[in-house]
Every structure is written in C-alpha cells, then in structure tokens.
Amino acid sequence: MARGNTWRNWGRNQGCSPAAVELPASELEVVEAVGRARAAGQTVKVVGAGHSFTDIACTDGRLLHLDRLDRVVSVDRDARSATVEGGIPLWKLNEELAQRGLALPNLGDIDRQSIAGAISTATHGGGIRFGGLAAFVIGLELVTADGQLLRCSADEEPEVFSCARVSLGALGVITKVTLQCEPAFRLHSIEKPRTLDSLVHDLDDIVDANEHIDCYWFPHTDVATVKVANRTDAPVRVKSGWKRWRDETLLPNYAFGALCAVGRRRPDRVPANMQLVAGGIGRTELVDVSHRVLCSRRLVRFVEMEYSIPRADLTKALLQVRDFIEAERLRIDFPIELRVAAADDIPLSTAHGRETGYLAVHLSSGTPPSAIERYFRGVETIMNELEGRPHWGKLHFQDASTLAPRYRAWDRFQAVRSRLDPDGRFRNAYLDRVLGSPV
Length: 439
Ligand SMILES: Cc1cc2nc3c(=O)[nH]c(=O)nc-3n(C[C@H](O)[C@H](O)[C@H](O)COP(=O)(O)OP(=O)(O)OC[C@H]3O[C@@H](n4cnc5c(N)ncnc54)[C@H](O)[C@@H]3O)c2cc1C
Fold this sequence. Notes:
This protein has 439 residues and is of the alpha+beta class. The protein is 33% helix and 25% strand. It has helices spanning 27-40, 90-99, 115-120, 158-164, 196-209, 241-265, 270-279, 290-294, 314-328, 369-384, 400-403, 410-420, 429-435, and strands at 2-3, 6-8, 15-16, 20-22, 44-47, 62-65, 72-76, 81-85, 102-103, 137-143, 149-153, 173-180, 182-183, 186-195, 212-217, 223-232, 284-289, 302-310, 336-341, 356-364, 389-390. The mean pLDDT is 95.
C-alpha cells in the first residue's frame, strides 16, 4: 500500500519512504524509470502486492509498482502456455487462464500476490509432485540495470533464466513471465481434523497418496487438520451460500480474529482459545475448480516465518517446535502449517535439490515484537540444525554468511547478479543482508 511516498506491507510490520514512486504502464516506461534512477544515482525496487513479511520490498530509492502491467499478453493453446505481464495478480491470472481452459498446476494458499513477486521469493503450495510457482516458469523478460530488455528461457540466456526464476528482485525488473499451464481441472478436496500423533504417524503416506496437501497443528492442543485435494471429473459440489460464508469467512476470519485480539490482551487465555478453535473444526468436502480449492481468504493479519527442510525431517521438526513451545511456556495464537514440495533445480529456490518439507509459524499482527522474536528465533534454532532455508518473503534472522552454505548453486546466482547488476542498482538493505553486496 503506497500513500504519498510512504509504503507499508500487508503484514503492517514493514514500511519505507522511497525517494520516488512510479507506476509504469509499459516496458518502455520501466526502462525510462530505471534510466531516471541511474541518472539520479538512486537504487530501484519493484514491489508486487506487498505480501512479504521481510523488508525485501523496502527502499529509500525509487519504488516501482507494476499494478498497471497486469495483462495476459498471449496464450499458446497447443503448448498450454501463457505469457503475462509481471504485475498481474494471481487472482486475475487464475480467472484469465480459466476463461481460456487453462490453470496453473499448483498454487499457494492465497491469490493476492503478483506473479513476479510470488516467483521472486519462491512462493509455493503443498504437494510432493509439484515445485513452487517458479517451477512453472518457462520464459522471462527483464529490464536490467543498464536499461536493456533481456529475454531468457531454457534456450536463450539459459543461466540468467535459471537464476531469474527466483531472484529476490536482485537481477532486474521482471516485465513478462511465460508460464507452463495445464488444462483447467477440478479438485476434490477433503479437510478433516485428526490427532497430532496420527498426523505425525501418517504424514508420509498422506503426502504420497495425494496430489495437494496442507496440514495444520493447533498449538496448546492435540488437534491437527489435514486438507488433501486430488484431480476429479466429478461436477462442482460446494456448500450453500450461508454455510460457505460461515466456514470460509466468519469462523476462520472474523471469529478467529476476535479470539486473537482477546489473546493479545490476555495471553493466559490463548491455550483455551486454541482449544475452542480446534474443538470446532469439522469435516469439509467439496469439488470446485482448482484455484478456488487451493486459495482461501486471509482477513486476519499475521506475521510469519517459514522454513524449508528435507522432507524426511518434517515431523521431527514439528515435534521439536511443540516441545520448544511447551518448555518455554509460549502463548501461540496461530496454527503451525506443514506442506511439501518436489525438488527443483532453481539456484535460490528453497526446494533446490531436495524433496522439501515446509514448516511455517505465525503470530497475529499486534503481538509484541519481543514475543515474535522469542518464538521465531527459537524455531529458527531448530531449523538451523536441519539445514533449514528460510522463505525469502517471510521473517528470519539469517544473513549471507549463514545462507551461502545452504545453497549448492549460491555462486552461480552471485555470478549472474554480478554480471547483470554490478553497481547494485537493485540492492536494498534486505538484499545486502541476505546476499551481500554485489561484487
Ligand atoms: C496472507 C499471506 C499468505 C501467503 N501464502 C503463501 C503461500 O501459500 N506460499 C508461499 O510460499 N508464500 C506465501 N506468502 C508469501 C508471499 O507469497 C511472498 O512473500 C510473495 O513474494 C509476495 O508476493 P508480492 O507480489 O506481494 O511481492 P512483494 O512482497 O511485493 O515483493 C517480493 C519480492 O519480489 C520482488 N518483485 C516483485 N515484483 C517484481 C518484478 N516485477 N520484478 C522483479 N522483482 C519483483 C520485490 O522486489 C521483492 O523483492 C503469503 C503471504 C501472505 C501475506
């Protein structure tokens, strides 16, 4: 959200005052904006939908919003691919693809991000047969620091392509993204509660048996939920209007948000609140088009940290986090999320080179910073022992010295960064911390 020259992210935990804010409406205007920054000796930062929790999108230089670069450029029905502008939000992309009989193979749990912002931080969903959104990218166009338009794919500038799919915004302004889609499909989804013990015992089987999964454990309780979804030819079957609003908006958003507010004032009540929430969870079964099953509304604001670890360590990590919460008598008002993804070959992808388990911890916005830090640092210590790689868009305390050894292709990314942005036109404080200065 930009007001005048101040900007804040969705989580309301990051903000900045850029020297200038621009809304280019064409590639040429992006080139001109980068040129103006160069002439003024300013850095450039593109912001997508501001849905990162880190200061990855903050700048005191020139901030570019790509909200006006939000169109579908072309669709190749035979190849099932679509080229879209970098600023298109996922909700619009999903609708436009559906109108053309196409869909992305997998999605994260919301659809508010821009496509370029989502791929830039390795945004992912859940499902061991799928990589994150960046794994669906087959071509990109970037405006680089020298104002050139650079096109890349597996055949054209392949090393740039490899790195630019997850670039943290460090390589240039992504103006176009070509995505490998698949024919539009419906998903049959079942979400139901189970005990934490049974989740830990069965998780591997659940992961192998289902295309899409998303699991939560509710701290201070023995309750977990597992949502699985699989492709189906069955007709759409959704809840009636009132029941849908109650189960997708009222209970998980307004009622849950009210309990979080109570818990922030009275932390001693948090365990009882969690038990109330967990006790009310029932079984939900539906059939709907893929993006409506995979993406939900998130109206309760929160802050989050998420770590990628080897898939085999996911349940061990969850139990260690539970023990940490109990040993430290923490009061945690948000569930812990577990997901998985396939290995990929993208240098800075959190799933690079290994089947991945993702463990995400959250606290509601408004939680005192000291409580956030105590919880997140404790969880990070556990993740450090498991070769954890933090989500680039979610809170963490790592820097380039701790991150480099966790990415086998780190040097390849740095070489491309040095080539495309030797003067650090696209740097900001976050990139200086996690990547170091360009050399
Ligand atoms: C409610 C909520 C739910 C979420 N769910 C998930 C989830 O299910 N899975 C998951 O993995 N993550 C999830 N996230 C994290 C989110 O997907 C990432 O932080 C994502 O990067 C946000 O996209 P954005 O468009 O808001 O990008 P921003 O946060 O605005 O920017 C992120 C980075 O992308 C860069 N960037 C943006 N546009 C461009 C461009 N055109 N060219 C070059 N660089 C660019 C920015 O410079 C910045 O470095 C969630 C976040 C929230 C708040």
